[in-house]
Amino acid sequence: MEEIVLEIEDLSKTYKVTKKQQKVMNTTKREIKAVENLSFKLYKGEIFCLLGNNGAGKTTTLRMISTLIEPRSGTIKMNGNLIEENKNLVKEKIGFLTTELKLDDFFTPNYLFDFFGKMYHMNKEEISKRKEKLFNILGIDRFAEVKIKKLSTGMRQKVSIAISLVHNPEIIIFDEPTNGLDIVTTREIVVFLKTLKEEGKTILISTHIFDVVDKLADRVGIMVNGKLVYCENYREIVRENRLIEDIFFEVFEEEKNRILR
Amino acid sequence: MNKYEIFIIMKKELAKFFGNKRMLFTTAIMPGIVVFVLYTVMGSTLNKQSQEGQFSDVNIYVINLSENIKNVFESSEITYQEVSYMMKEQIKQGIEDREPSILVVLPEKFDEICMSSDAKVGVEVEIYYNSSISESVYAYTFMTTLLEEYENTIFDLFVINNGNNVYDMALKKDSTGKNLSAILPMLLMGLIFSCCLSIAAESIAGEKERGTIAILLTTPVKRNSIALGKVCSLTIIALLSGISSYIGVILSLPSIMNIAASDILSIYGLKDYVLLLLTLTSIILVIISLMLIVSAIANSVKEATTSLSPFAAGAMLIGISCLIQSEPAEKIGMYFVPLYNSVQFIYSILVYKVNYVNFAVMLISNFAYTLIFVWVLAKLFDKEKVMFG
Ligand SMILES: Nc1ncnc2c1ncn2[C@@H]1O[C@H](COP(=O)(O)OP(=O)(O)OP(=O)(O)O)[C@@H](O)[C@H]1O
Ligand SMILES: [Mg+2]
Predict the structure, then answer these.
(1) Cα angle value A109/A98/A70 (rounded, 5°)
(2) Is A12 within 8 Å of A168 (Cβ atoms)?
(3) How many Å from the N-terminal Cα to the C-terminal Cα in chain A?
(4) Mutate which of A58, A178, A206 to test ligand 1's pocket (most atoms within 8 Å of Cβ)?
(5) Do A68 and B214 touch (CB under 8 A)?
(6) Do the chains contact at A98 and B20, CB–CB below 8 Å?
(7) Which of B7, B219, B223 to mutate to probe the A interface, most A CBs <10 Å?
(8) Could you read off the pLDDT of B31-41 as tens digits, one per residue?
(9) What pLDDT, on a 0 to 100 scale, did the predictor assign at position B321?
């Protein structure tokens, strides 16, 4: 049996809704269940794609796994240990990329990479080795000394990715890594993620782009309204000759109807 | 807490500041220039006004000038014109028609009346002037004072300060300090506050907006290190702006108060400057750490700026306390009050009333407040509602 890297069990998260939000969202609910009884496992060396519509709870889930926010209930175990008890170890092992990260305009990729390397307590040599490798693969070399301000969205995203991997983490958690990118850059990032998988990294990404799922996924999870309503091996889907897009809308409609009933 | 982490975070904040020419200019150089220009312009208009106030251009007409008064006028180097009683109405009309002049009408045989016992009843002196003309008013005030002084010399039993000695024993340095203390604390507070506001508002709220704080929080770096690193680096930046404004004030003094800048530099010793620097540092630490808390709670830079703005007005008000109080606060308890304590201590430095116990109380309590605020700030980094609310 494959090695379990992350084990998520019965995870739930609620947010309090402020009066202001109530008005905006047109509800009288005091709380939102952003994530509800979520359970899944992540095996070593696989790519798990979390699909979901806007507001499905993907970001919330990934943030909980990265220790940025705490679940209301449920457990997350990394290599068998509860993450809340080993936060620092988890931080060393996880590389997290948030959606729509806007790096400091003023700095160069080079400087920011060094800075975050130091935040992980890496020494100069380790940092420069790591930089050489990542900047080369991602093609950041060309603009390593150009201020972020002058870079395109795609270039910035590559820098963000490089920075989140500075400490060579075993588990990579990317929240919509191809958000807002054109097809060329998206392809580059997909290829890059594949090389990471080949290195033996475990990857969990959220996305709502089916093409990315088709290119990358070993397993697919679909979230609707905070619940994981579907979780399957990608190979199984291919074997059944089905499209991930069809499956998504199927389970999405099903869940919506269930709520209406 | 980790010194290395603090150092790296400080280095980044400072690099951002010093690498950004516009920021560097607006925070470190502009305040000095603004103060200098503002004060020089203000000073020269004031000087011009007071020169206009001299009544070299004012015609002083006197009717029935007596011998004694003539002596008084001459010793005061006043140029005047003796006129006959016949001219009275004509000159009055001239004053009404805004000619820059005043008319002094003394009774006939003024000296004799003054000496006689009738004088106790009151000797009538008329001075006509036009209150809508500043020269006229100035001459009128001057004349009134002159005559009252003369009156005192003939009726008063006591002869006070009538010799040729210099009676005002105030040294130049005392009056300079007094003048400085009236404006400097308020000005420094205002400028430091606006500088702190612009850098602190961006510092954490900006990182929240951009999402970089999330990246920082997923690294193993200690929350305390982030808080302290930010507080220290921003304090250095604000201190620069404080020093810059101070230099601006010094350079503009020649025009504002007729004090040579070199006088200011020489009347305060190195010790005073060290005290001033320490005081400024401690006050900036308090302001910055408090502002960073607000910045951390705010959801955007804009929100942070809006919620911080009222503080600036408050700081100016505290600065004004030096104008209102004739002496710096003496009670030790006052030196526990943040902001007010430093303003009062700057006041004491400027008027040479330094009390080292008060200084210690101020410094220690300010550091204590800073540590408390830093602690709160570090806690806020772990509050998901605050960071990802
Ligand atoms: N900090 C917060 N406070 C209150 N409610 C929140 C907060 N963050 C998220 N939510 C709510 O929780 C639900 C899940 O949000 P989440 O951001 O996890 O969704 P998502 O799947 O990442 O969506 P998207 O594709 O738009 O990024 C949404 O209804 C959202 O409004
Ligand atoms: Mg999201």
Answers:
(1) 135
(2) no
(3) 40
(4) A58
(5) yes
(6) no
(7) B219
(8) 888 878 877 77
(9) 81
CB contact under 8 A, B218 and A88: no
Q: Which residues pair with A94 in a beta bridge?
A: A171
Q: pTM for this one?
A: 0.79
- Comparing CB atoms, the residue among B19, B211, B384 nearest residue A69 is B384
CATH code, domain with A80: 3.40.50.300
Q: In chain A, how many domains are there? A: 1
Q: Is A9 exposed, middle or buried (0-12, 13-18, 19+ CB in 10 A)?
A: middle
Residue B175: the pLDDT is 63
Q: DSSP readout, B159-174?
A: --S-SSS------HHH
pLDDT tens, position by position, B157-171? 555 555 655 555 555
Closest-CA residue of chain B to A106: B16
Report pLDDT for B363: 95
pLDDT number for residue B283: 92
Query: A112, A99, A94: which is closest to A162 by C-alpha?
Result: A112
Domains and CATH numbers, chain B: 3-46+171-388 (no CATH), 55-154 (3.40.190)
A75-133 pLDDT per residue, tens: 999 999 999 898 889 999 999 999 878 999 899 999 999 999 999 999 999 999 999 99
Contact B121, B153 (CB under 8 A): no
User: SS3 of B203, please?
Assistant: helix
Which chain A residue has its CA at the smallest distance from B22's CA? A106
Domain residues for the domain of A196 are: 4-260
Could you tell me the two tokens for B231? 């507080």
Q: Which tokens go with B389?
A: 């609310």
- In DSSP terms, which residues pair with B338 in a beta bridge? none
pLDDT in tens, B334-377: 899 988 999 899 888 888 888 999 999 999 999 999 999 999 99
Burial class (CB in 10 A: 0-12, 13-18, 19+), B38: middle
Contact check, Cβ <8 Å, A94/B218? yes
Q: Does an H or E element contain B237, and which? A: helix B223-257
CB atoms near residue B352 (< 10 Å): 14
- In the predicted model, residues of chain B with pLDDT beneath 50 are 53
Nearest CA in chain A to B6: A119
Q: Which amino acid is at A106?
A: F
User: Whole-angstrom Cα distance, residue B356 to residue B328?
Assistant: 14
Please identify among residues 87-126 of chain A the ones whose CB lies closer than 8 Å to any CB of chain B: 88, 91-92, 94, 96, 98-104, 106-107, 111, 115-116, 118-121
Q: Could you tell me the two tokens for A75?
A: 């457990």
Amino acid sitting at position A179: N
